[in-house]
Design brief:
about 90 residues; mainly alpha; 3 helices; about 70% helix; DUF5658 domain-containing protein; transmembrane
């Protein structure tokens, strides 16, 4: 959830400042503000899942799936941070 919000904010800053372009073909036609609002809304929906019975699933497959998704999202966020760092040098 936090990674998604941070990614949305960094994407918004990068697009509006002209440093980056949106690489996702599904999102590239949208305005930067629409992308940010969509990512923030998704984060709120994911946060809401914490308070449902769905979050109580403790299966090994579910746990490994979450670890894999969080790892992939973390790597993408680190790549974005690296790109912004290199552009601001």
């Amino acid at each position: 959830m936090v990674l998604n919000m941070l990614d949305g904010i960094l994407t918004y800053i990068g697009i509006t400042s002209g440093f980056i372009t949106e690489g996702n073909p599904l999102l590239s036609a949208l305005s930067p503000l629409t992308i940010l609002m969509g990512k923030l809304l998704l984060s709120l929906c994911l946060y809401g899942l914490l308070f449902t019975s769905f979050a109580s699933i403790r299966s090994r497959l579910w746990r490994y799936g979450l670890i894999a998704a969080n790892s992939l999202y973390s790597m993408i966020l680190l790549l974005h941070l690296l790109w912004l760092y290199l552009l601001l040098l």
